[in-house]
Amino acid sequence: MHPLKADATRIPVVLPSPGDARLHVAAIILSIHAIGLFALDFRVTVPQILAAIVSCALLEVIVQFQRQRAVVWPASAMLTGSGVALILRDVGTEAGDYWSTHRWWLFALVATGSLATKYVIRWKGIHVFNPSNVGLVVAFLALGSGRIEPLDFWWAPFRGWMIVAYGLILFGGVAITRRAGLLEMAVAFWVALGACLGVLAVMGHCFSAPWSITPVCDGRFWWTVMTSPETLVFLLFMITDPRTTPTSAKGRVGFGVAVAVVSAVLIAPQQTEFGAKVGLLGGLVIVCGLRSLALGAGERLWDRWRTLVTRRSVQWFGLAVSLVVVLSTVAVAGVGAREPAPVRLSSAGIRADQIVAHVDSARVPEVTVGEYVDDWLGSDVDSILLGTELLRLLDVETLALERRDPEILKASNHGVRLRELRNRIVDAGEGVITGEVYEFDSMHLKVMPAVGQGDLILGVIASGNQTQVAYGADGSAQLGRTEPFALVFALRPGSMDRWFLVAVSEEPG
Q1: Which of 179, 302, 399, 492 lies at a C-alpha separation of 20 to 30 Å from 291?
Q2: Sheet strands (E) in 229-377
Q3: What is the greatest pairwise CA distance in the chain?
Q4: Residue 216: which residues within 8 A CB-CB, separation 6 or more?
Q5: pLDDT of 1
C-alpha cells in the first residue's frame, strides 16, 4: 500500500500497489460481469452491479476513515460488492435490459449487509465469514426463490464468449490462487465434491432447473455442477479468501475437503437448482463458522492419532473408514431427492384473470401438443386451457392499449413484450396507439430452449388473421386492414398457474 497526501486537506490517501492481488481478482470478476451482461444474457443490469460495488466501497471508506483518519482505497469491499452482484439475481430482471434501475436498492442492501458481517462477526480479531458468501446465503434463505436466486449453474452453450469466460475463470483463478498458496485447497475441494456428488449421481439424484426441459439427473447432474462456471468461481475466488482460511498447508487442504463434504450434504436433499446452489454456498458458511473446531481441533486430533498409531496401515484404515462414513452420510441425505420439484417463477401483483375473467371458448381453435411439452409441464397438461390463457393475455394487452395504462400490462406481460408495449404507450403520448386483434385458426404448443440464462419458454406457434386497430386519445378504436399471420407467441410460466406473454415473433422457417 502506498500512502499519499492530499495537500489541500492534509488527509492521507492510501492506494493499493499495482501488484495487489485484489486488483487482479477485480479485473477478472469485472471482465466476467461484462461478458455475462453483454454476451451471455445474464439477468442483471449495470445499475444493479454498480449499486452493489459502490455501496460497499462507501461503507468501507467511512469505516476506515473512522479508524485511521485516512481515505483508504476500498479494494476488498469492492470485491465483496462485485461478488454479490455476480451471484445475486432478482427474478424480475430481464436479460438485455442493461440500464434498468429495477430493484437496485436490493443489491446495495445485500452487498452492504454482507460487508457489515466483516466488522460485526469477528473471532480473535479476524472476521469469521467470507462477507459476500454469508450475505448471499442469508439473503437467499430470508427472501426465497420467489424474489431472488443465485446465478445459474449453466450459463450458455460452450462456444464463443462462453469459452472466453471459462478461460478467464480457470487461468486467472489458478494463477491467483497458486501465487497465494491456495491452489491445493481449491483442488482438494473440487476432488472431494466430485467424489460426494458422484455418489448422488450413481443413486439417481435429480433436480429441476428453469433452463432444462428435462430433469437434471444422474451423470448430467454431476457434470453440470462440477463443471459449472458458478462452481469454479466459488472454489477459485470465494473459498480461497486468505483471511477466512487456515494458515497451514495441511489445514487448508482439510478446509477445502470440509467445505466440499458439507456442501454435498446440503445439496443432497435438494430437488431444485435453487436449493442446490444455496447448498453449495452454504457449505462455506457452516465450515467458516465452525473452523476453529473443525480445523484447529481436527489438526490436533490428527497429530495425536499419528503419535498413538504409528503404523501407516492403521492410519490408512482410519482414513478409509472416514471416507465410507462421509460418503454414506451424503448418500443417506440424498435419499429423498430422486424426483425433481417443479420450478415456477414468482408472479406477484394483479392476475390477468382478475382483469379479463371470461374468454369465449369458441375463439380457441384446435390446439396440438409438441414433443417435450408433457415432460416439462406434466402429462396432464390441458392444451385448450393454455390456448384460452393466451387469448386472455392478449385481451389484457388490448385493454391496456385502450386505456393507455401500462400498469395493466404487468398482469399479462413480461420481458421483451412488456417493454415493447410500455414504450408503445409512452411514445404515443396523446396521439394514436396501434394494436392488433387476433383471430386464430390453429395453435401448436412447443417447448423453446433457453437463450443464455433465460428460462424455458412455451412457444404457441399459431396462424390465423390479425386486424390492425388504432386507439385514439378519446377512447375511440378504428379498425385497419386485416391480413393473415403466422407467429410464435412465447409464454413463460409463473407461480399459482399463471402465464406471461414475453415475446411475439415471426414463425421460424
Answers
A1: 179
A2: 367-369
A3: 93
A4: 206, 207, 208, 209, 224, 273, 340
A5: 47
User: What per-residue string of b and e applies to 18-34 under the rule 16 or more CB within 10 Å gives b?
Assistant: eeeebeebbebbbebbe
Bridging pattern class, strands 88-90 and 148-150: antiparallel
Closest CA to 284 of 323, 335, 235: 235
Positions of the chain with pLDDT under 50: 1-8, 295, 302, 305, 314, 345, 509
Instruction: Please tell me the predicted confidence (pLDDT) of residue 474.
Output: 82
**Domains delineated in the chain:** 1-148 (no CATH), 152-159+176-343 (no CATH), 352-506 (3.10.450)
Collect all residues with Cβ–Cβ distance below 8 Å to 327 and sequence separation of at least 6.
Answer: 195, 196, 199
Q: What are phi and psi of 330, to 5 degrees?
A: -60, -45
Pull the grid cell for residue 152: 445459474
In sequence order, what DSSP letters do the residues of 402-445 get, joined into one string?
HHT-GGGGGGTB-HHHHHHHHHHHHHHTTS-EEEEEEEEEEEEE
Closest CA to 321 of 313, 32, 152: 313
> Distance between CA 179 and CA 198 in Å, rounded?
30
Output the CA torsion 375→381→387→389 (10° steps). -100
Is the distance from CB of 44 to CB of 74 less than 8 angstroms? no
> Which of 59, 65, 60, 57 shows the shortest CA–CA distance to 82?
57
The pLDDT of residue 115 is: 94
Three-state DSSP at 504 gives strand
Local structure of 120: helix, strand or coil: helix
